[in-house]
Protein: Membrane protein YkvI
Amino acid sequence: MKRTVNVLQIAATYMGTIVGAGFATGQEILQFFTRFGYWGTAMIAAATVLFVWLGVKMMLLASEINAKSYEDLNKVLFGERYGRWVSHFMLVVLLGVTAVMLAGAGTIFYENWNISYQAGLLITMFGSFLLLRKGMKAILAVNAVIVPLMVLFSVLVMSQTFQLPEADRFLTLPTDRPLWSALAAPLLYTAFNLSMSQAVLVPLGAEIKDRKSIVLGAWVGGIGIGLLLLAGHIALSAHMPGVTQYAIPMGGIARQLGSGVQLVYTFLIFAEIFTTLIADIYGLTLQLQQRTNGPRTLIILLILAFCYFTSQIGFGPLLSTLYPLFGFVSIGWLYLIARQKKLQIP
Structure:
């Protein structure tokens, strides 16, 4: 029973960490898979294999070296000296990504719930602080609630899509994109999302001592991510090319299903942003605590304060500046994880 609980917690946290705001809006699925037409389904299958294989490797590595933070893993991958520099870079970028998530939460409050942007930021920060004081248990609990809701929403959208005459378009949708860009898509998508998620998956792997639970949890989580990607891809393909006009493609589909579904969907987008936010802050806190030996509560407050002031720049400018930058490092990180065979602990 304990192993089953561990497997489900790992799987839910894995899915919740990967299935972030970009996934929930549909933009990531559209950009990395659906725009490649009938190639998209095969590319999702490739991405699923990568999520299972590399997710297992990353969490097992973290468990074997008993990593206190993602910096310990980077030292194994890049060596003592370069691993520290990569961790410095990731610290800066993760701070920026966390600010992006906070700004996104404030935007949802303002655009959908008629609450001011600043009030939305403060409410989100307060909720984050309360949960983060409870550590990894809070992250596991939040994902245990949010991930099933996301799965239910995906099932609802799928059931509606299969009633449309265009339901099978994911198998026939034409594309003018070159094949090489389609083949690169699952690699880029997996690299970007796994390198971002190490802030929480590395300490999770270190905390779960049972190797079998880690392997099974990564398998269930990786396959779950693939199924959610496929569900979104099928729904978006049925509404192509009109769905590309929406900034939030899945929101455009949800709007057609009624105001109740749209309300639930808006909540899910916020929840996905929130889970990514607390996961990133948790990982950053562990790294800074390892470096400074400072009290956890103070570090959490300082990170939240930094993100609050940075989020005044706005959601759009932060997103367009930081994400491409992080993508370059992600490819190198993914390559080193993939080729890691025998551990050489520094």
Observations:
- The CA atoms of residues 71 and 88 lie 9 Å apart.
